[in-house]
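@channel sequence for tomorrow's demo:
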Amino acid sequence: MSFTIRARLTIWYALAFSAVILVVLGVLALELKRQLDKEITTALRTEEHWIETLFEHEFLPLLTAPEKEYGELAAELYEELEERYGLQRQFAIIAIEKNGQPIVFNGGLKNAQELLPHDFLGRRAGNYNVLLDEHRYRVRVFRRLWGAVAVGVENETVFRVAKEAGEILVWIVPFALIFAAAGGWLLAKLAMRPVLAAAKAAEAISVTNLKNRLPVYAGKDEFGKLVATLNHMIARLQDGVNRLQQFTQDAAHELRTPLTILRGDLELAYQNENTAEETRVFLQRTLDRVIALGQIVDNLMLLARSDSGDYPIHKAPFRLDLAVKEIYEDLQILAEGRPLAVQLQNGETVEFFGDESLVRRLLLNLCDNALKYTSQGNIDLSLKKVDTTIELVISDTGEGIPAEDLPHIFDRFYRADKSRSSGAAGASSGLGLAICKWIASAHGGDIAITSTAGAGTTVHVSLPCHS
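structure tokens (generated this afternoon):
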């Protein structure tokens, strides 16, 4: 599956933007977690220092005090712990030994020592995350010579923040992805706009309008350099084509005069009554070849001038149906004595605005081809208006054109069968269909040919009603 450059740019932009968003949010989440962990660790260290100072300065005698003093000190220690931790989501557990018996002092969360694992105070010093009474706590275990201590601070904030951040990300990430895709599509569209404009302009440039150039790109980037390079290349091509067209016109012009003189001399010699019959036959063949060569020169001159845009096209309204009818009548005369039927269908009135002489030349070339390569069968002509289009169809049951030759039939000097004998100058020289194609295009129309070898050929000419 292939994507356009705009789509690929959009995808890459959206992925890059999303990756940046995820990285930034991930870094922020990690930093937030680190800060919260740091605050909790600092708070636990503060409590550790407070308990250590409190016990060593005021309650160390608990280890050796007699029963009466021990009770007073124990009650005072419970009171200190409850006063500090009773109103907060915190707790402290102090475990000491007196006379070989373990004694536990608890403050804050009730029954914290029962909620903790039974061997929790026996663990090595450090911080632990535990779940107590459906709440998460960060508990710090440390030991001193007088006993072991576990002090805990509720750690629900970290998990609550992580949960809320996850819920936010569920909405933010898709929205950011959509926003990035939309922004990437817009940016790619803006970036590709000069490329599309250049492609559209390049599509319109052909050998007949090499004066056109790609639109000037104001940027000084790589695309600007590419546009300038392509415009220089088109200018060089235009210069080369102009030289070739000028050469063709000059050559055709130079050949026209001697051919005209040669034709006149041959005609005079042919008309001489003293000329022998064999010589007259030879002169007739030579004259036919000179006439055909003159027509080729005229066709070359026409195509060269059409390529350069110098050929005058004189458009005026005329009856296209009458022109077709005249061609049809000529075809009937030429087909006399041959097993060939010529028919004209749809004889409706069709007005057309164009160069009548060129359109007649188009009709003559196409009908001459049909007559030349159809030895028997039918030649059908059809002319009709379909909406805003004039459809002219010429079909025959002749030799047809091989499939491999169809893509090249409008190429100049191309002949599907090189062994065919020369007939009409334009057709035999391979210029007739090229001229037909140009005449149709000059009137805003088109010409298409379908054919099957051995079964016949159909030519479709489409012309706009208002050329």
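heads up for whoever presents: The CA atoms of residues 14 and 181 lie 5 Å apart.
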